[in-house]
UniProtKB/TrEMBL annotation:
This is Cytochrome c oxidase assembly factor CtaG. It is found in: Cell membrane. Pfam families: Caa3_CtaG. Its main location: membrane. The keyword Transmembrane applies. Keywords: Cell membrane, Membrane, Transmembrane, Transmembrane helix. InterPro entries: Caa3-assmbl_CtaG, Caa3_assmbl_CtaG-rel. The keyword Chloroplast does not apply.
Amino acid sequence: MFSLDLFGFRANWSPFYLASLIIILAIYYLLVFKYYPRFKDSERGTLKQSLFFTTGIILLYGVKGSPLDLLGHITFYAHMIQMATLYLVIPPLLIFGLPNWIWRGIINKPIIKPLFSLMTKPLIALVLFNGIFSFYHIPLIFDVIKTDMWLHAGYTTLLFVLAIVMWWPLLNVLPEQQSLSGLKKVGYIFADGILLTPACALIIFADTPIYATFSDPNAWAQALALCVPASTLSMLNLSGPEMFSSLSLLEDQRLGGVVMKIIQEIVYGVVLAYAFFNWYNSEQEKEKEELALYRQQHPQPTE
């Protein structure tokens, strides 16, 4: 079994990507803790928001800048860990991490506002994300995107934006953006899980390896070139993913589908609990307000 170290430091740790994320994090902290008074209707960020955003950025580096990104071009299960974390875990953290005034500044821009308003309608948001995600995992489409740098960058960026759009109706806290309330959020989560299932089922129950970029040595080498410098690849004699994994191609593929489904169920379970308890607490508050109003309108006679 070969080690990923043979691809070199740059391929394993993406130093330029790390530098760009550090800059983004520095700008975030300066905006929400120092320069926020310069913006209209702004307020200082909270510790909770900064923890959410920082965790999101750390995970973003973990899945796109660490050796996991390289491993995701070698083994399918690592690729699916990337996908699940990138589209199901990180977007909620960023939604919670950015203060309301920053979100309003982004989504209220003249060009963005009507498009964002349309895309975040619950049914459209569900269909857009799950449709594009499932389309990506059609073998022919997958293999083309995985071997073209610009297509890969463009498609994964689009999926990330659509993941934020998909999570927005459930998790945003802007009063003017609340399109779902109460038990509708629970139904939204169940619908989301159902729509993601066919893509996972295609992968889990296939009888043979279906992706050339993990089973065909030439296509695999092309995909690997997206994250390994050409000068490094030219010095290596690679035959295929089996050099780095003890799993067969079919076992690797099935494990990828199972991992995606497990992470999805965990994340959706957490969000389901969050949505349910938010609904329950709001109902309790509503009952207390109604009871207080009733008592105010019908005071008990004093003896």
